[in-house]
Amino acid sequence: MPDARLLVVEDDPHIRDLICRTLEGEGLECRPCADLRSALASLQHELPDLIILDRVLPGGDGLKVLHKVRELSTLPVLLLTSLKSEDDKVEGLDAGADDYLGKPFSLRELIARVQALLRRSRMLPGATLRMGSLSLDADGRQAFRDTHPLDLSPLEVRVLRSLLVNQDRVLRRDELIELAWGVEYEGYDRAVDTLIVRLRRKMGGAGMPHIRTARGLGYRLSLEPEA
Predict the structure, then answer these.
(1) I need a labelling partner for 76 at 20 to 30 A (CA). Which of 5, 48, 63, 221 fits?
(2) In the chain, how many domains are there?
(3) Distance (Å, rounded) from C-alpha 153 to C-alpha 51?
């Protein structure tokens, strides 16, 4: 995706320079930042097309940058971290990150994740998706209960869109992960389950479809509630 502008927020100068050189070699423009303050200042000046964000930064948690981004835009955010626990991974996704890459990582995987996020953010509009009182606009960015917008994160919208597109069948967890994130993942079962719980909480109301569990298989949308 040439001509895309990236903000790379990473305090380690070696990793930061390596990321920038690698992605600039793919035709992308990178703006480096080394700490929380400079990242927040950069966002006030100009929004990039994608942010690569280290979780642990001088001056505070990188999630502070993520929260600020989500106040301003739905632009994609790739979270980098050396934190190992699954809770840290889920916390980052729950805060609005679009993707998660643990350190150490391969440069090929970094390029693939960035390209997948940029492709998804630049998808052309399609048809409005509907089921009962639920609809998802043609841009795939906003879901509605009748005419009332639902307060969903970008990742929640993508999971919901995957369920709507495939509403006639059960989607396995690994299928939901691949459809929502754009690449193949391992070990994200809990992240998917967390998203499903949150979506169920936000999708109540007359005429709204339900996310039903097919035990041992996955999830599907239905106008009938769980038995």
Answers:
(1) 221
(2) 2
(3) 16
Separation of alpha carbons 44 and 62, rounded Å: 16
At 50 the pLDDT is 93
R_g (Cα) of the chain, nearest Å? 18
Q: Is pLDDT larger for residue 227 or for residue 22?
A: 22
Backbone angles phi, psi at 130, to 5 degrees: -140, 150
CA-CA distance, 207 to 205, in Å (whole number)?
6
Which residue carries 């080394």 as its tokens? 34
Domain that includes residue 58, residue range: 5-121
The SS3 of residue 2 is: coil
Q: Which two tokens stand for residue 198?
A: 């949150």
- The CATH number that applies at residue 26 is 3.40.50.2300
Mean pLDDT of the chain: 84
Same domain, yes or no, for 149 and 206? yes
